[in-house]
Amino acid sequence: MNELLANALEGLVFPLVADDESLALLDGLEQIGRRLDGARVAATAEVARRADVELYGGTASLSKRMGCTGKLDLIMSVTHVSVREVKRRISLGALTSVRSGVGPLRPAVFPTVSAALAAGEIGVDSAEIIAKGLQEVIRQADPSDLHLAERVLVANATGALNADTAGLPGAGIALPADRMRVLVHEWQARLDPDGIAPQEEAREAKSSISFGSFERGLYRIFGGVTPDLRGEFETYFASRLSARATVKFLPTAGPAELAGADGSDVVPDTELAGSDGAEVVPDTEVVDIDRRPGGEKRADILRDMVREAARDPKAGVMGGSAPTVTVHVNAVDLNAGRGVGWIDGVEAP
Predict the structure, then answer these.
(1) C-beta pairs of 222-229 under 8 Å, 24+ apart in sequence
(2) Which terminus of the chain has fewer CB atoms gathered within 10 Å of its CB, N or C?
């Protein structure tokens, strides 16, 4: 298979391809890629199962027989992809692959998604959005309604026209993965209109924020927030980012032309501060518009929020005093005006 693909693409120079041919080539390659992606997900899930379970009467698992520490180590050593990608394939494969165990094979949790993914009709992104989105409400939804939602969502992703999508807005149009995420949220609300019961703390979504590794001068932030917390963030951000400046139109005609036009007294030239008779706008009304990206502005707002909270008398204390960032600098570097400093609790300089 590798040789067939290599021979087909050998000598192909993309900048020299005509517009129509480039679009056809893009579509064809994407179809092949989707089919291969579906097979990779299924193969990864099966290898993970074999590497996770001891088979054949106590024989060591596949990962141990291959000299690996576990399923992730085994799959990464074969595929050379990241651990994140391996986990993604295993997670999706658990929902879209035929399940084996004691007795006959069992169908996939989401068979319609599985069939479309294997046939290359939908990509991994759309399959993941549909399968994981429906999995979140699988215990609350009626099975028939859940399978209906699955069929409709797959039809939305492929652009298929059938009895399930007849009369629905956008029927027959294949939607991209980002749009599918919106539709999945709508189906979740329809399948589980009551949401999560307050007593179900184990299933209730919890906000979480953590810091990742240091890359390119920045610490990555990971996590998620509940809708109510995002609403609080968005409201506060909007209050800090909203434009407070008002537009003021200044007259362009000279004083002689404007004299008495509205029945008012004529203002002598000596009382006009502007050379052309226009009203002078005080410096306090000139607004410096911050043209930085929204992300940078929000980061500064969060910094201000933390600083204000640290100054609050009711805030927690460290060593008997308010939270304080301590920076350590070598005295020689400080006197020389060069070098780096270190913050307590932060590994990066």
Answers:
(1) none
(2) N
Q: Are 158 and 174 in contact (CB under 8 A)?
A: yes
| For range 279-304, the mean pLDDT | 72
**Residue 193 neighbours by CB under 8 Å, 6+ apart:** none
**Number of other CB atoms surrounding residue 342 within 10 Å:** 14
Tell me, yes or no, whether 308 lies in a domain: no
Q: Do 14 and 79 share a domain, yes or no?
A: yes
Q: What share of the chain is helix, strand, coil (3-state, %, to 5)?
A: 50, 5, 45
Evaluate if pTM is beyond 0.85.
Answer: no
Q: Which pairing describes strands 218-224 and 208-215: parallel, antiparallel, or unpaired?
A: antiparallel
Instruction: List, in sequence order, every beta strand (DSSP E) within the chain.
Output: 208-215, 218-224, 327-329, 341-343
Q: pLDDT, tens digit, for every residue of 115-153?
A: 999 999 999 999 999 999 999 999 888 999 999 999 999
The domain of 52 spans: 1-103
Q: What are the strands, taking DSSP E only, across 49-156?
A: none
- The verdict on residue 211 lying in a domain is no
Residue 187 has a CB neighbour count (10 Å cut-off) of 22
**Whose CA is closest to 40, among 108, 120, 105?**
120
Bridge partners, 223 (sequence order): 209
- Read off the pLDDT of residues 158-213 as tens digits, 9 standing for 90 and up: 988 888 887 777 778 889 999 999 899 989 988 988 765 544 555 567 888 888 88
Pair (91, 2) in one structural domain? yes
Which of 84, 103, 122 represents a domain boundary (last residue)? 103
Residue with tokens 């399940």: 99
Collapsed DSSP state (helix, strand, coil) of residue 123: coil
| Burial of residue 181, with CB atoms counted within 10 A of its CB: 0-12 exposed, 13-18 middle, 19 or more buried | middle
The phi and psi torsions of 83 (rounded to 5 degrees) equal: -65, -30
Q: How confident is the model at residue 254 (pLDDT cuts 50, 70, 90)?
A: low
Top-confidence residue, 130 or 63: 130
Residue with tokens 């607004």: 287
Q: Are residues 14 and 35 in the same domain?
A: yes
Within a domain: 286:
no
Residue 54 pLDDT > 70, yes or no?
A: no
